[in-house]
Design goal:
The protein is an alpha+beta fold. The protein contains 4 helices and 2 strands. It folds into 2 domains: 32 residues; 70 residues, Roll (Membrane-bound Lytic Murein Transglycosylase D, Chain A), CATH 3.10.350.10. The protein starts with a helix and ends with a helix.
């Protein structure tokens, strides 16, 4: 009897961990898929820096400011942080795809 109780306890705990992990991953995937990735070109204004641009556009990206600046450097093939007024940069931004969908169906 003790052996059966022990086996049922192990099965219950294992199942709970497995299903709990699966539900958590499904919810995380749903949240991650909620935001669509877009690109646009911006013109650098006086006083802009990669860091200020990151602060403006990284919302909903799940990237830190450092990661977003690295992404800007990579996308724009920048060797360092130097940018100049009048220069154009490609930036990535994220918008709630459900909100966009809701607006377009009204």
């Amino acid at each position: 009897m003790k052996r059966l109780l022990w086996l049922l306890t192990v099965i219950t705990i294992t199942s709970s961990v497995f299903f709990g992990h699966s539900i958590f991953n499904a919810m995380a995937g749903e949240e991650q898929g909620r935001f669509s990735r877009y690109y646009k070109s911006i013109q650098i204004k006086d006083g802009d820096s990669l860091w200020s641009i990151a602060g403006e556009y990284r919302e909903n990206s799940r990237m830190s400011t450092d990661e977003y600046v690295d992404e800007l450097r990579s996308m724009n093939r920048l060797k360092n942080d130097t940018i100049h007024t009048g220069q154009y940069l490609t930036v990535v931004y994220f918008e709630d795809s459900r909100a966009s969908h809701d607006i377009s169906t009204e």
